[in-house]
Amino acid sequence: MTTETPVPGHLEAIWIKRAKQGPMDPREQVTALAHRGLEGNANQGGHRQVTIIEEEKWREVSAELGREVDPTTRRANLLVSGTSLVDCRNRILAIGNCRIHMLGETRPCRLMEESVEGLQQALDPDWRGGAYGRVLTDGDIAVGDVVRWED
Predict the structure, then answer these.
(1) Are 98 and 139 in contact (CB under 8 A)?
(2) Which of 114, 132, 116 is nearest to 62 (CA)?
(3) Which of 63, 64, 78, 65 is nearest to 135 (CA)?
(4) Where are the domains of the chain?
(5) Given 97, 101, 107, 119, which residue has the most CB atoms within 10 angstroms?
(6) Helix, strand or coil for residue 86?
(7) What is the per-residue pLDDT across 7-18, written as a single tens digit (0 to 9) for each?
(8) Phi-psi sector, 66: left (phi>0), alpha (psi -120 to 50), beta
């Protein structure tokens, strides 16, 4: 009997929010600060230090809406591919040398509907709205970094 090693995913994009409800600024790399979040991001401390969406789920949402929707509309910090966030509560996600304790699903709110008609409903099933977590270890993360679940 052989045991398959899961194929790691990748970090596809990074965005920082300068202010609450402010624009989403793209970055090629960012420093994650333990127990705080992403350096320069408006959301510091608390539980929702980092928000993450899946590229594959975002494509499903765009297809369902019948048009390409910019992922910054979701206002998440990180876009990952090849790593499912479904039911990831209380798991540890490693991105580069940073570790994030995933705490739950990021539920879509009315702001999604105000941005794109039908988006709130399209994000509702199957964790399409992404997940959020708390940074456990300091580290620099960059677009292209490996994303993997720790046991």
Answers:
(1) yes
(2) 116
(3) 78
(4) 9-150
(5) 119
(6) coil
(7) 689 999 999 998
(8) left
CATH 3.40.50.2300 fits 9-150, yes or no: no
Q: What is d(CA 150, CA 94) in angstroms, rounded to the nearest whole number?
A: 7
Taking the alpha carbons at both ends of the chain, their separation in whole angstroms is 21
Contact between 30 and 143 under an 8 Å Cβ cutoff? The reply is: no
77-104 pLDDT, tens digit each: 999 999 999 999 999 999 999 999 999 9
Instruction: Using the predicted structure, report yes or no on whether residue 4 has a pLDDT greater than 90.
Output: no
What counts of helices (H) and strands (E) characterise the chain?
A: 3, 11
Question: Which two tokens mark 86?
Answer: 């479904």
